[in-house]
């Protein structure tokens, strides 16, 4: 079954690509930088951009949806909640569980930031489910990259390269993604246990066929989500024990509405990405209660006022990297992302120079130099 902007999905479509193309052509001719905006719910993530606002909100709607083949194509100005509702009506979902951070979040913002939710280690990241994209280049031409099938790609896979690029390489107008069925059953558990034991459990369960799709440790307790067949979920829940946990815990974690994120703490919020089974890090000004362990410990949210260079050095020694997700008291920071190694920076510069030599697309969003 294929649909095209039908009322069945409650997403009336509108193609604004011609107007977007004209605006980009003028910006390129005039050398005018553009600040690309969807719902603007993730404006805090990255460096501030100085430029004329270019909104994608008028470019919205599902262009193709095949529930049997588990493929959807959608314009990037489409509200993320509307896409998720259309998928849920067919018993399907975005497996990467992307955060919204506001009612106006769009599909384009999901792709641009590449952020994934609690299910990510077990299902995959946003990038893993992108099949193809449409992109308006600096010359004002709309190009299509990728397609609607999963395949190996030689050389640059420009579709997936756009994930996390924060709009610095061109204007995304459409994305095709793989979707998955909603789980047959879901149950969440709360188990009181110390951090050391929880980390051991993460490692132990990682070697077993346990139907876990979310695992976090916070405030002296392990939080688990089990999903899959009803009998498997029920049997595993009975074996593990613990108390029932409200399912909205995971949405609150994904959207950073938990008390941990809203504490009266003016220190920056850091996101640490670490190898599996990494023990607690020794950070001078960080107590156990200043850390939320997500993704079975591979992603850690930390409140710390430690110097950025010192903190990143500690995390790098553990094999990971650190992003300053929100600055002190929510203020922007000069270098939110880990500085690039010289060789990697060279490739970033070359790619930016090839796709956006005048720097009109979100200049300085990721790094000050490009």
Automatic annotation (TrEMBL):
Q: Which GO terms describe its molecular function?
A: glycolate dehydrogenase activity
What region holds the FAD-binding PCMH-type domain?
3-182
Known EC number(s)? 1.1.99.14
Which keywords does UniProt give here?
A: FAD, Flavoprotein, Oxidoreductase
Q: Mind telling me which InterPro entries this protein's record contains?
A: FAD-bd_PCMH (IPR016166), FAD-bd_PCMH-like_sf (IPR036318), FAD-bd_PCMH_sub2 (IPR016169), FAD-linked_Oxase-like_C (IPR016164), Oxid_FAD_bind_N (IPR006094)
Primary enzyme class: oxidoreductase
Q: Where is coiled-coil annotated?
A: none
**What Pfam families does this protein's entry cite?**
FAD_binding_4
Please state what the protein is called: Glycolate oxidase subunit GlcE
Specify the species. Halomonas tibetensis
